[in-house]
Specification:
This protein is α/β, with parallel strands linked by helices. The protein is built from 15 helices and 15 strands. Strand 7 (about 235) and strand 8 (about 240) form a beta hairpin. It binds iron/sulfur cluster (SF4).
């Protein structure tokens, strides 16, 4: 499964039962606007029927998509299928949290055509889960994984977070091993960032929480990459691992390779040709604008050829596949700088690509600057 050449459809379901302490995604901890949001997102689909015809991936993200009841989810998917064409074999992902995920709910989700589940496990240590402000515990997470398998999901992704004070390297190893024992098809391991405005960021400002520092961040990253690769997973993007090429996340790969995507819902981003636009970050404003027949777009930009090329290079260097060696930004410097980066063990040149090594992925954000400066 590759990134596919057809666009991907993302739907942002901006509701959570409570707000996790580290989260800076747009979501509200109340379900009161859910009926109005559902109507609004259906209206938004209508705005794009002509501009986007066919997709080969759908991603229901959030927020917490599983706050949707059976009728609501069925209605949303029905409207999406009426508005657009999904090519047979499309990857259909739904994010889910372990709590409130009953066997019945999972079966319903599967029966509605969702064929990939992305479960927000985050940790298998209860103290860490509490620190993160998650509403589930480790047992619920493991039970949810088993229940998802029993419901027929053959493509399960697990999201984990590392790199915060209460998590030692030893505990992180145990978490990885317990997840590996389950054998998910995909694992995402995100480095904790204390994003401005979050509860943890406020605690940091008050001196109650400390970042772990660059040295420990590197230690977590390298250990994670080595450990998961040793168990047969492909480290194919900075934070992402797949149990085989057929389990690379087709939808997310579109974001990294400039394949068009349409994002619906508050705060969702879209990209087509050289154009990028993003929606308002307020569910009330989103619903109001659509009720008035207006597009809920906050802002947009047209990228120049130069910006597109630079972005392509930056995105490519975050993936093991790499960036084109003959990209103009890279080729102007390729003699000296690339040789230096190779000597430093940060990249290798293979099949006409500049590919980051494990060490290179660790500093993926800086690589384009090193190459283009
Ligand atoms: S991390 Fe997920 S579940 Fe937690 S508040 Fe953010 S979107 Fe909601």
């Amino acid at each position: 499964m590759n990134s596919g050449q057809l666009p991907g459809l993302y739907i942002h379901i901006p509701f959570c039962r409570s707000k996790c302490r580290y989260c800076d995604f747009y979501s509200v901890a109340s379900l009161s606007a859910l009926p109005a949001w559902l109507e609004a997102v259906r209206a938004e689909m209508g705005l794009y029927r002509d501009r986007f015809r066919e997709f080969d991936s759908l991603y229901l993200g959030g927020g917490t998509p599983t706050v949707l009841g059976e009728r609501e989810l069925a209605g949303l998917l029905e409207c999406a299928r009426e508005s657009f064409v999904f090519r047979p074999g499309s990857e259909m992902t739904m994010e889910a949290n372990p709590d409130g995920l009953s066997a019945d709910k999972l079966k319903t989700v599967r029966d509605l055509g969702i064929n990939r589940l992305s479960l927000g496990v985050q940790s298998l240590d209860d103290a860490v889960l509490q620190y993160l402000g998650r509403t589930h515990n480790a047992k619920q997470a493991l039970d949810a994984l088993e229940a998802a398998r029993a419901a027929g999901f053959a493509n399960i992704g697990v999201d984990l977070i590392y790199g915060m004070e209460p998590l030692s390297l030893g505990t992180w190893n145990q978490t990885m091993d317990r997840i590996l024992a389950f054998g998910p098809e995909h694992i995402s391991c995100y480095q904790m960032t204390l994003a401005k405005g979050t509860a943890l960021w406020k605690m940091k400002e008050a001196g109650r929480v400390r970042p772990i520092g660059e040295k420990m961040e590197s230690a977590f990253f390298i250990r994670t990459s080595r450990h998961l690769e040793r168990h047969g997973y492909l480290h194919y993007e900075v934070s992402n691992f797949a149990a085989g090429r057929e389990f690379l996340c087709r939808h997310n790969r579109k974001y990294w390779s400039h394949v068009p995507y349409l994002g619906l819902g508050p705060s969702a981003h879209s990209f087509q040709a050289a154009s990028r636009w993003w929606n308002v970050r307020s569910v009330d404003k989103y619903c109001r604008l659509l009720a008035e027949g207006k597009a809920p777009v906050e802002s947009s930009e047209i990228l120049s050829q130069e910006q597109l090329a630079l972005e392509k290079l930056s995105l490519g260097l975050r993936t093991s596949e790499g960036a084109d060696l003959d990209a103009p930004e890279a080729s102007s410097k390729k003699g000296g700088v690339l040789a230096e980066l190779q000597r430093a063990g940060l990249v290798r040149i293979r099949d006409g690509k500049i590919q980051p090594t494990r060490k290179g992925l660790l500093v993926a954000d800086s690589l384009p600057l090193m190459i283009c400066d």
